[in-house]
Amino acid sequence: MTEAQREVYLVIDEWWKRYGFGPSIDDVMLQLNTRGRGSVNRKMWSLVALGICKGVRGRSRSIRPSYLRVRDIL
């Protein structure tokens, strides 16, 4: 995992702990003080490809750390 991916993962993890649902791309952008939606999106989905996070394409706020289970959320 690169340092940039680690920063995105920490935002996703903290967001879940605080709010109970995943952050949007814009939320991650605001937390990291970046302006590139595409780069944040690539980093988020590269975490899914690595198996660190899970998500459903086409569903907003679906990304979550892989250690969370759906039954833990409900």
Number of domains: 1
The CATH superfamily bears the name Winged helix-like DNA-binding domain superfamily/Winged helix DNA-binding domain
For this structure, what is the CATH class? Mainly Alpha
- Overall strand count: 2
Please state the CA-atom Rg, rounded to the nearest Å: 11 Å
Q: State the secondary-structure class.
A: mainly alpha
Name given to the CATH architecture: Orthogonal Bundle
Name the strands of the widest sheet in spatial order. 1-2
Largest sheet, if any? 2 strands, antiparallel
Task: Return the string of H and E elements.
Answer: HHHEEH
Walk me through this protein's architecture.
- With 74 residues, this protein is mostly helical.
- It has one domain (3-73): Winged helix-like DNA-binding domain superfamily/Winged helix DNA-binding domain (Arc Repressor Mutant, subunit A, Orthogonal Bundle).
- 58% of the residues lie in helices and 5% in strands.
- It contains four helices and two strands.
- It has helices at residues 3-19, 25-32, 37-50, 70-73; strands at residues 53-54, 64-65.
- The chain has a two-stranded antiparallel ribbon.
- α1 crosses α3.
- It is globular.
- The mean pLDDT is 88.
